[in-house]
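Hi team,

Filling in the usual template for the complex we talked about on Friday. All components are listed, including any nucleic acid strands or ligand strings, so the model treats them as one assembly.

SUBMITTER: L.P.
PURPOSE: interface mapping
COMPONENTS: two
RESIDUES: 288
SEQUENCES:
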Amino acid sequence: MSGHTGEHADPAVAFESAKLGVWTFLATEVLLFGALFTAYTVFRMKYPEMFRAEHAKLDRVLGAVNTVVLITSSLMVVLGVDAIKRGKARLLEAYFGATILLAGVFLCVKYAEYAAKFHHGIYPRTNLFFSIYFMLTGLHGIHVLLGMGLLSYVIVLSRRGRLSASYHTPAEMSGLYWHFVDLVWIYLFPLLYLIG
Amino acid sequence: MAHGTGNSLRTGIAVFVALLLLTAVTVLVSYVDLGLWNAVVALLIASVKASLVALFFMHLKGESRLVWGFALVPIVFLALILLGTLSDTMLR
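RESULT (copied from the run log):
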Protein backbone atom coordinates (compact mmCIF):
# COMPACT_ATOMS: atom_id res chain seq x y z
CA MET A 1 0.00 0.00 0.00
CA SER A 2 2.42 2.66 1.19
CA GLY A 3 5.19 4.05 -0.93
CA HIS A 4 3.22 3.77 -4.15
CA THR A 5 1.97 7.31 -4.27
CA GLY A 6 4.24 8.02 -7.22
CA GLU A 7 2.59 5.49 -9.50
CA HIS A 8 0.75 8.13 -11.49
CA ALA A 9 2.93 10.51 -13.40
CA ASP A 10 0.45 13.29 -12.80
CA PRO A 11 -0.60 13.79 -9.15
CA ALA A 12 -3.77 15.58 -10.29
CA VAL A 13 -4.84 12.46 -12.20
CA ALA A 14 -4.06 10.32 -9.15
CA PHE A 15 -6.21 12.59 -6.99
CA GLU A 16 -9.12 12.48 -9.47
CA SER A 17 -9.07 8.69 -9.70
CA ALA A 18 -8.92 8.33 -5.91
CA LYS A 19 -11.93 10.62 -5.65
CA LEU A 20 -13.88 8.66 -8.25
CA GLY A 21 -13.02 5.47 -6.38
CA VAL A 22 -14.50 6.84 -3.15
CA TRP A 23 -17.66 8.04 -4.92
CA THR A 24 -18.05 4.57 -6.49
CA PHE A 25 -17.78 3.00 -3.06
CA LEU A 26 -20.32 5.50 -1.70
CA ALA A 27 -22.70 4.53 -4.53
CA THR A 28 -22.67 0.94 -3.24
CA GLU A 29 -23.22 2.29 0.27
CA VAL A 30 -26.34 4.20 -0.83
CA LEU A 31 -27.80 0.93 -2.08
CA LEU A 32 -26.72 -0.99 1.04
CA PHE A 33 -28.59 1.43 3.28
CA GLY A 34 -31.22 1.81 0.55
CA ALA A 35 -32.32 -1.82 0.91
CA LEU A 36 -33.03 -1.20 4.60
CA PHE A 37 -34.75 2.12 3.83
CA THR A 38 -36.97 0.21 1.40
CA ALA A 39 -37.86 -2.35 4.09
CA TYR A 40 -38.63 0.56 6.41
CA THR A 41 -40.95 2.19 3.84
CA VAL A 42 -42.81 -1.02 3.01
CA PHE A 43 -43.50 -1.92 6.66
CA ARG A 44 -44.31 1.65 7.68
CA MET A 45 -47.02 1.72 5.00
CA LYS A 46 -48.27 -1.70 6.01
CA TYR A 47 -48.39 -1.09 9.78
CA PRO A 48 -48.70 2.69 10.30
CA GLU A 49 -50.25 2.45 13.82
CA MET A 50 -47.55 0.09 15.07
CA PHE A 51 -44.77 2.35 13.74
CA ARG A 52 -46.44 5.37 15.29
CA ALA A 53 -46.68 3.75 18.71
CA GLU A 54 -43.21 2.21 18.65
CA HIS A 55 -41.31 5.24 17.39
CA ALA A 56 -42.58 7.20 20.42
CA LYS A 57 -40.42 4.92 22.60
CA LEU A 58 -37.27 6.51 21.16
CA ASP A 59 -35.78 9.58 22.84
CA ARG A 60 -35.84 12.30 20.20
CA VAL A 61 -33.75 14.64 22.37
CA LEU A 62 -30.90 12.10 22.42
CA GLY A 63 -31.37 11.65 18.67
CA ALA A 64 -31.13 15.41 18.18
CA VAL A 65 -28.04 15.61 20.41
CA ASN A 66 -26.36 12.93 18.29
CA THR A 67 -27.34 14.81 15.12
CA VAL A 68 -25.60 17.94 16.43
CA VAL A 69 -22.58 15.83 17.46
CA LEU A 70 -22.22 14.35 13.95
CA ILE A 71 -22.74 17.69 12.18
CA THR A 72 -20.05 19.22 14.40
CA SER A 73 -17.73 16.30 13.65
CA SER A 74 -18.23 16.94 9.93
CA LEU A 75 -17.24 20.59 10.42
CA MET A 76 -14.07 19.39 12.21
CA VAL A 77 -13.22 17.32 9.12
CA VAL A 78 -13.77 20.36 6.87
CA LEU A 79 -11.48 22.44 9.09
CA GLY A 80 -8.88 19.65 9.20
CA VAL A 81 -8.75 19.23 5.41
CA ASP A 82 -8.54 23.02 5.06
CA ALA A 83 -5.62 23.05 7.52
CA ILE A 84 -3.54 20.49 5.61
CA LYS A 85 -4.23 22.34 2.35
CA ARG A 86 -2.33 25.19 3.99
CA GLY A 87 0.36 22.71 5.07
CA LYS A 88 -0.58 22.76 8.75
CA ALA A 89 -0.18 19.10 9.72
CA ARG A 90 -0.48 19.61 13.51
CA LEU A 91 -3.75 21.48 13.01
CA LEU A 92 -5.08 18.66 10.81
CA GLU A 93 -4.23 16.15 13.55
CA ALA A 94 -6.03 18.27 16.17
CA TYR A 95 -9.20 18.65 14.07
CA PHE A 96 -9.30 14.99 13.06
CA GLY A 97 -8.66 14.10 16.71
CA ALA A 98 -11.71 16.20 17.62
CA THR A 99 -13.73 14.33 14.97
CA ILE A 100 -12.74 10.98 16.50
CA LEU A 101 -13.64 12.27 19.96
CA LEU A 102 -17.08 13.41 18.74
CA ALA A 103 -17.56 10.03 17.03
CA GLY A 104 -16.85 8.48 20.43
CA VAL A 105 -19.48 10.72 22.03
CA PHE A 106 -21.96 9.64 19.34
CA LEU A 107 -21.33 5.96 20.05
CA CYS A 108 -21.61 6.49 23.83
CA VAL A 109 -25.02 8.13 23.39
CA LYS A 110 -26.02 5.27 21.08
CA TYR A 111 -24.82 2.77 23.70
CA ALA A 112 -26.92 4.51 26.38
CA GLU A 113 -29.96 4.38 24.09
CA TYR A 114 -29.47 0.68 23.33
CA ALA A 115 -28.95 -0.07 27.05
CA ALA A 116 -32.18 1.75 27.96
CA LYS A 117 -34.09 -0.22 25.32
CA PHE A 118 -32.68 -3.56 26.52
CA HIS A 119 -33.50 -2.54 30.10
CA HIS A 120 -37.13 -2.11 29.06
CA GLY A 121 -37.13 -5.48 27.37
CA ILE A 122 -36.97 -4.06 23.84
CA TYR A 123 -34.79 -6.11 21.51
CA PRO A 124 -34.35 -6.41 17.73
CA ARG A 125 -36.81 -9.31 17.79
CA THR A 126 -39.49 -7.33 19.70
CA ASN A 127 -41.25 -6.08 16.57
CA LEU A 128 -40.64 -4.97 12.99
CA PHE A 129 -40.01 -1.35 13.96
CA PHE A 130 -37.25 -2.25 16.38
CA SER A 131 -35.80 -4.87 14.02
CA ILE A 132 -35.36 -2.11 11.47
CA TYR A 133 -34.23 0.41 14.10
CA PHE A 134 -31.46 -1.83 15.40
CA MET A 135 -30.41 -2.91 11.89
CA LEU A 136 -30.19 0.64 10.54
CA THR A 137 -28.56 2.26 13.58
CA GLY A 138 -26.31 -0.78 14.08
CA LEU A 139 -25.09 -0.71 10.48
CA HIS A 140 -24.59 3.05 10.79
CA GLY A 141 -22.72 2.56 14.09
CA ILE A 142 -20.34 0.12 12.37
CA HIS A 143 -19.69 2.83 9.78
CA VAL A 144 -18.90 5.31 12.56
CA LEU A 145 -16.41 2.81 14.04
CA LEU A 146 -14.76 2.27 10.63
CA GLY A 147 -14.59 6.04 10.18
CA MET A 148 -12.79 6.40 13.53
CA GLY A 149 -10.24 3.87 12.29
CA LEU A 150 -9.78 5.67 8.96
CA LEU A 151 -9.36 9.08 10.59
CA SER A 152 -6.85 7.60 13.08
CA TYR A 153 -4.87 6.23 10.13
CA VAL A 154 -4.79 9.71 8.58
CA ILE A 155 -3.48 11.13 11.88
CA VAL A 156 -0.73 8.48 11.91
CA LEU A 157 0.21 9.35 8.31
CA SER A 158 0.33 13.03 9.20
CA ARG A 159 2.50 12.40 12.28
CA ARG A 160 4.95 10.54 10.06
CA GLY A 161 5.16 13.64 7.90
CA ARG A 162 3.50 12.00 4.89
CA LEU A 163 0.86 14.68 4.34
CA SER A 164 1.46 18.19 3.09
CA ALA A 165 -0.12 21.08 1.23
CA SER A 166 0.75 19.35 -2.07
CA TYR A 167 -0.27 15.81 -1.03
CA HIS A 168 -3.27 15.31 1.26
CA THR A 169 -5.37 12.75 -0.64
CA PRO A 170 -5.91 10.39 2.37
CA ALA A 171 -7.27 13.27 4.49
CA GLU A 172 -9.62 14.37 1.73
CA MET A 173 -10.86 10.82 0.93
CA SER A 174 -11.52 9.79 4.53
CA GLY A 175 -13.28 13.15 4.89
CA LEU A 176 -15.60 12.28 1.98
CA TYR A 177 -16.45 8.99 3.69
CA TRP A 178 -17.05 10.72 7.03
CA HIS A 179 -19.44 13.26 5.50
CA PHE A 180 -21.37 10.36 3.97
CA VAL A 181 -21.74 8.74 7.41
CA ASP A 182 -23.11 12.10 8.63
CA LEU A 183 -25.44 12.24 5.62
CA VAL A 184 -26.92 8.79 6.36
CA TRP A 185 -27.66 9.87 9.93
CA ILE A 186 -29.37 13.02 8.62
CA TYR A 187 -32.00 10.67 7.12
CA LEU A 188 -32.02 8.10 9.94
CA PHE A 189 -32.82 10.70 12.60
CA PRO A 190 -36.16 11.95 11.19
CA LEU A 191 -37.21 8.56 9.79
CA LEU A 192 -36.76 6.70 13.10
CA TYR A 193 -37.17 9.36 15.80
CA LEU A 194 -39.39 12.11 14.41
CA ILE A 195 -41.99 10.80 11.97
CA GLY A 196 -44.99 9.46 13.86
CA MET B 1 -12.79 23.66 -5.83
CA ALA B 2 -9.74 25.85 -5.99
CA HIS B 3 -7.23 25.95 -3.16
CA GLY B 4 -8.76 29.09 -1.71
CA THR B 5 -9.00 28.64 2.03
CA GLY B 6 -10.43 31.84 3.50
CA ASN B 7 -13.61 31.53 1.47
CA SER B 8 -14.04 27.77 1.83
CA LEU B 9 -13.68 28.16 5.61
CA ARG B 10 -16.41 30.77 5.71
CA THR B 11 -18.66 28.58 3.53
CA GLY B 12 -17.99 25.58 5.80
CA ILE B 13 -19.02 27.46 8.92
CA ALA B 14 -22.11 28.96 7.21
CA VAL B 15 -23.20 25.46 6.12
CA PHE B 16 -22.59 24.19 9.66
CA VAL B 17 -24.83 26.92 11.14
CA ALA B 18 -27.53 26.21 8.52
CA LEU B 19 -27.42 22.48 9.40
CA LEU B 20 -27.85 23.26 13.10
CA LEU B 21 -30.78 25.60 12.42
CA LEU B 22 -32.50 23.04 10.17
CA THR B 23 -32.02 20.37 12.85
CA ALA B 24 -33.71 22.66 15.40
CA VAL B 25 -36.59 23.36 12.99
CA THR B 26 -37.18 19.68 12.19
CA VAL B 27 -37.22 18.74 15.91
CA LEU B 28 -39.61 21.59 16.78
CA VAL B 29 -41.97 20.74 13.88
CA SER B 30 -42.06 17.09 15.02
CA TYR B 31 -43.86 18.22 18.23
CA VAL B 32 -46.69 19.72 16.17
CA ASP B 33 -49.23 17.24 14.81
CA LEU B 34 -49.57 17.90 11.09
CA GLY B 35 -50.76 14.43 10.16
CA LEU B 36 -49.11 13.16 7.00
CA TRP B 37 -47.39 16.51 6.51
CA ASN B 38 -45.03 15.71 9.41
CA ALA B 39 -43.36 13.08 7.26
CA VAL B 40 -43.24 15.38 4.22
CA VAL B 41 -41.70 18.29 6.15
CA ALA B 42 -39.19 16.03 7.95
CA LEU B 43 -38.05 14.43 4.68
CA LEU B 44 -37.85 17.77 2.89
CA ILE B 45 -35.67 19.26 5.64
CA ALA B 46 -33.51 16.11 5.71
CA SER B 47 -33.03 16.37 1.95
CA VAL B 48 -32.03 20.04 2.18
CA LYS B 49 -29.51 19.11 4.89
CA ALA B 50 -28.18 16.18 2.87
CA SER B 51 -27.82 18.42 -0.20
CA LEU B 52 -25.87 20.99 1.83
CA VAL B 53 -23.52 18.27 3.08
CA ALA B 54 -23.04 16.80 -0.41
CA LEU B 55 -22.67 20.15 -2.23
CA PHE B 56 -20.34 21.93 0.19
CA PHE B 57 -18.74 19.45 2.64
CA MET B 58 -18.26 16.80 -0.07
CA HIS B 59 -17.45 19.49 -2.68
CA LEU B 60 -19.99 18.18 -5.17
CA LYS B 61 -20.67 21.79 -6.17
CA GLY B 62 -17.35 22.15 -7.97
CA GLU B 63 -17.12 18.59 -9.30
CA SER B 64 -17.07 17.33 -12.88
CA ARG B 65 -20.09 15.78 -14.60
CA LEU B 66 -18.50 12.37 -14.10
CA VAL B 67 -18.51 12.70 -10.30
CA TRP B 68 -22.08 14.08 -10.41
CA GLY B 69 -23.02 10.96 -12.34
CA PHE B 70 -21.50 8.73 -9.68
CA ALA B 71 -23.41 10.67 -7.02
CA LEU B 72 -26.81 10.71 -8.74
CA VAL B 73 -27.02 7.28 -10.42
CA PRO B 74 -27.31 5.37 -7.10
CA ILE B 75 -30.14 7.71 -6.06
CA VAL B 76 -31.98 6.90 -9.31
CA PHE B 77 -31.47 3.19 -8.63
CA LEU B 78 -32.72 3.61 -5.06
CA ALA B 79 -35.85 5.32 -6.41
CA LEU B 80 -36.37 2.40 -8.84
CA ILE B 81 -35.98 -0.16 -6.06
CA LEU B 82 -38.44 1.75 -3.86
CA LEU B 83 -40.99 2.21 -6.64
CA GLY B 84 -40.69 -1.39 -7.83
CA THR B 85 -41.03 -2.81 -4.32
CA LEU B 86 -43.93 -0.55 -3.37
CA SER B 87 -45.81 -1.21 -6.59
CA ASP B 88 -45.66 -4.88 -5.62
CA THR B 89 -46.43 -4.67 -1.90
CA MET B 90 -49.11 -1.97 -2.10
CA LEU B 91 -51.07 -3.38 -5.04
CA ARG B 92 -51.12 -6.98 -3.97
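MY TAKE: Chain B has two domains: 1-58, 64-92. Helices of chain B lie at 6-30, 37-57, 65-91.

Thanks, L.
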